[in-house]
Every structure is written in structure tokens, then in C-alpha cells.
Amino acid sequence: QVKNKAPAEVQITAEQLLREAKERELELLPPPPQQKITDVEELNDYKLRKRKTFEDNIRKNRTVISNWIKYAQWEESLKEIQRARSIYERALDVDYRNVTLWLKYAEMEMKNRQVNHARNIWDRAITTLPRVNQFWYKYTYMEEMLGNVAGSRQVFERWMEWQPEEQAWHSYINFELRYKEVDRARSIYERYILFRALAVLVLVHPDVKNWIKYARFEEKHSYFAHARKVYERAVEFFGEEHMDEHLYVAFAKFEENQKEFERVRVIYKYALDRIPKQDAQNLFKNYTIFEKKFGDRRGIEDIIVSKRRFQYEEEVKANPHNYDAWFDYLRLVESDTDAETVREVYERAIANVPPIQEKRHWKRYIYLWINYALYEELEAKASKRTRQVYQACLELLPHKKFTFAKMWLLYAQFEIRQKNLPLARRALGTSIGKCPKNKLFKGYIELELQLREFDRCRKLYEKFLEFAPENCTSWIKFAELETILGDIDRARAIYELAISQPRLDMPEVLWKSYIDFEIEQEEYEKTRSLYRRLLQRTQHVKVWISLAQFELSAGQEERLPRCRQVYEEANKAMRSCEEKEERVMLLESWRSFEEEFGTDATKERIDKLMPEKIKKRRKLQAEDGSDAGWEEYYDYIFPEDTANQPNLKLLAMAKLWKKQQQESEAAAMDPDKDIDESQT
Q1: pLDDT digits 0-9 by tens, 383-428
Q2: Quick check: is 245 in a domain?
Q3: What is the pLDDT of residues 1-31, one digit of tens each?
Q4: Where do the Pre-mRNA-splicing factor Syf1/CRNKL1-like C-terminal HAT-repeats domain residues begin and end (predicted)?
Q5: Which domain does 629 fall in, by range?
Q6: How far apart are CA 325 and CA 76, in angstroms?
Q7: CATH number, domain at 216?
Q8: Phi first, then psi: what are they for 633, rounded to 5°?
Q9: Dihedral of CA 581/587/590/594: which sign?
Q10: Could you tell me if residue 392 is inside a domain?
Q11: DSSP E strands: which ranges in 517-601?
Q12: DSSP annotation of 146
């Protein structure tokens, strides 16, 4: 027993053991001695021992075909052909599916010029294993090398009955072409494309390239009519369900070589119209090259249009709700296409209704309908279809949620162009009843104004103002209409109703329009009354300035005192105004007035009222309450405010005294500074 089980200090690996054994040559065996056979007995003894060894190896494992092949090749080396043949036959009984065994057997017979035996073996091989192409190739090659062309052709015919792969047919065709048998090659091509059995066409190789090879074979041998016929048969055979761009490209190139350019153009267009665009990239490319070589500018443009059409098709197919892509596609189609194709694309486009009933999703979509209707009216000259398009669009819109006034107005304008006024009025009336909007009212009123139907305009304005009483523009337009018609009282009543509304979107515009109306009517007292009523509602500086300018332009004798009185009232009213800039604006306007119309006394008085402009600083705070620094701003100090507040002067004197006190205290705390200053 080993007591110390600890690992040794020096470890030995398997690699070291192998290296040491090789260095010491422990595994090298001396070569066997060469034996020289000197007589027949020794030869027979050697043969007996070798055969016994081969037989023992075969007996141990019959399925190892390499033992059989070595045995047969050894017998062949001794010129014992009969024995080798017997061994091959025994091996075939064991495994007749072994391809190598058949090849070695046949090669032995051919090597020893046993032609009939070789034929017999090849015949047995192709009968037993007809799908092994190597047997057929070697059999036909042997017959051709022996000059037995008829026998080789017979083997090929037997092979073709098994409908082999493509290369086998080409080998047969090349065999016939080597002996200038063009007609036979043509017949093989026919069978190669379509195999006839029991009076029924059985498809063997329906691939397009086989038809192309057949046509090129005819073209190579200058049978151009036959080649064209092959291409035409191929196009007819595959039909429109299984179209392939390679067939049409080859057909077009053939016709191009024959200088048949119109036929080439027809072939390309026929294919492009029927093959799916994603499968026609090569077709587009070749058609473009052809047109650049032989076509005119129009043909090249057609190619470019076709390519762009394909791109747009891909875009709208990827995202049907990409309306910008539809617009580009329709613009392209409208430029050079018949009306039916354009209508088809429009129908496809408008079929992609936005999935969400929100107006922002419909804004681009609605223009598809508008463009469709305009195309039918202006390009196709089909008024009936245009009316159908408008009506279909208006039926599609969810008017309870939103509508498009543009669509209603375009439809009404179309009916007017068709001299169908009742339908236009009915459309606009329906729009106001279903979904009233400011734009619809304005459009309807504008239509009736153009038709000089003023009573209808009045009714529409009444409906409009019932719908939107806060719309100042509508009140003004209504009053202007009555003014134009000469009914001043109605216009004034409309203005009165307007300014009495509790809520208005632009009251300043309305009041200005009312005032301008009264000025035009030269009703100055009413104008003053309007200004006073407006000043009761607002003390804005522009109102005061406007009133002063009105008094100045009234053209009466007392215009200057009245104007000056207005400025006086405005100055008193603006003293309590927090916005000092407005008060400055008023005083500057007053000074301009006095400079033009006033006396020296009034000019001196207004100059005393002008404020002093001073610069100040104030502290800024950020949104979070932190210190954001300081900013400078301008402030105005009015003399009137200073006179009314006498304590301001006392406060200023107190601030000056405090500053002097601080300076004296600082000087007392630092006496050296005073000495230094006196020395300097």
C-alpha cells in the first residue's frame, strides 16, 4: 500500500511521455524483408496466401465494399480477368446499389478492351439504377468514343424517357450539335420543354430559362422566325398568371437585335402593365436603356413616369393613409393618363377614410375629394360625376362632430356655374341647418349680395347674429349693408343692438365703426354722445385722443376750446392711471395740438405738465423665488403729482442728510485715510 498519497513534485504529462517514446524510437518497427519470387511454386504459394487473406477479410465483413474492390484489382493486376469479374459479380450480389462498384467493374472491362462486357455492365447498371446520371454519362461517352453514334443516341433516348435533370438534356442536345444534327436538336428542345405521353402534355421543365435557351438556340443558328415563334409560344404558355420579367427582357433583346424597335416597345409596355411592380425592376432598367438608345424624348419620359408610378404605388401600399403620397401619385397620373385610370386612382385614394373622427386627421384627406371634383369638372368635363363626387363627400362627413365649410361652398359655387341656383341655395341652407359656421354664413351672404337679393341677405344676417351675437364683424357688415341701401335708421338700430350685447369679440372695432358711421352722417352731437358713453365703459388714452381729434376736425367755431377741454378732462382722469406711459402719450398729443393751434401761455402751461424721465433699478425674482439680479427701467415724475405731495421734498432732504451722516461716520473710523489724503 502507498502511504504517501500527496502529488509528486514533478508532474509528467501524456505529451511528455509520447515525446520521449518518439525520441527513443520505441514504436518504430523494422520494415518487413523483401521477398523475391523465383519459380512457379513460390508464385502459386504467394497467390494462395494473398487470396486466403482477401477471402478472410471478406468473410469477416462482407459489407465493406473496399475489400472486394481491392481483391478484384489485385486479380486484375495478375491478368486474372475472369477471377476479377467473378469477384465483382459476387460483390454486386452483396450490394448492387453501390455506384463505385459498378464504375470500377465497367472501367476494368474498358481498360482491358472488353467492349461487349463493358456494354453489358453499363446496360445492367442503368437498368438497375436509372437515376444515377454518372452511369448514363459514361455509357454515352464510351459509345461516342467508339464511334457508335447510333448506339450513343439510343442510350440518350433511353435516358430521356426517365425525364432526367436539365444538364442531361443539354448533353443530348450538344451531342447532336457535334454531329451537325440541328433538326434533331430542335426536336430534343421541343421534348425538353414539353414531354408528350399518352397524347397529354406533361410539363417537364416549366422554367422560363429553358424557353429562353431554346429561342437562343434558334437565333444562334439563324432561324429567326423559329426563335420569334418560340418566344411567342412561351408568352402564350405562361399567360398572365405566371409572367416572368426575364422572358420579356430576352424577347425584347431578340427583337432589338433584329432592329424591330416598335415590337420591342410593345413588348416592354405589355409586360410593365401586367407584371407586379416589385417584380419588374430589371424590366424597368432594360426598358430605360432601350429608350435612351433608340427612343425619343417622349419615350424616355414615359419610362420615368412608369418608374415614379411604381414608387408611389409602393408608398401608398406601405401606408394607405399617407395622403401626401396620394397627392403626388395623382398629380403624376393626371399629367399623362386617360380619365378612367385617373378615376380609378382617385377612388382608391378616397377609400382610405381616416379611422378617427377628429378634424385634424381629415384636413389632408378632404383635399382628395376637392381635387377629384375639380378634375371631373375642369379636365373630364363631367358635370354629373362632379355633382356625385360633391354629394358623396358631404354624405361621408360626420357633420354632428365637425364639417368643412370649404366643401359646402365649393359645391354651391359649382351649382352656380352650372346655372342651377336652387340647388346651390339648397346646399347652403342645408349646411347652415346641419352645421352652422361663420364661414358658411359669410359665403351664403356673399352669394346673395352678388345676386342682389338684399331681403335674403337681411334674413341671413339675422340668422347669423342669432347664431353668433358676439361677432362684431357681422354686426358691422350688416349695418354697412343697411347704410348702402340708404336705411340709416335701421343701420343705427343695428349698431345700438350690437353695442348692447353683453359679450363681444372686438368691441373697440365695433365702437369705432359706429362712431365713423355717425361722423359720415354728420351727426356730431350723436358722435359726442357715443364718445361719452364709450368713456363711461373705458378710460383708455386712445379714446380720449380720438375724441380730441374729433372735436378738432368737427369744423365748428368752438373746436379749439372743445378740444382743449377734452385734453383737460383726459389729464384729470388719467392722474389715477397706473400706466404712466399712457399719460405721457396723452400729454405729447396735447403738446402737439398746442404747438400747432395754441398760444405761448398754453404752450408754457403744457410744458410745465410734461414729466421728468428718470432711470431706476429694481430687483428681479425668478419663478422659484430666487434672486435673479437687477434691471434698469425708466420712470416718469409728473410735476402735478409732486405739487400735490409736499412731503416728497422733505423726504428727499432727509435722505441727503442721512447720506452725509454716513460719510462723516466713515471718516471718523478711518483717520489715516484723511491724513493720507491731506498729504497727497
Answers
A1: 888 888 888 888 888 888 888 888 888 888 888 888 888 888 888 7
A2: yes
A3: 667 788 888 888 888 888 888 787 766 677 7
A4: 66-354, 379-532
A5: 612-646
A6: 80
A7: 1.25.40
A8: -150, 165
A9: negative
A10: no
A11: none
A12: T
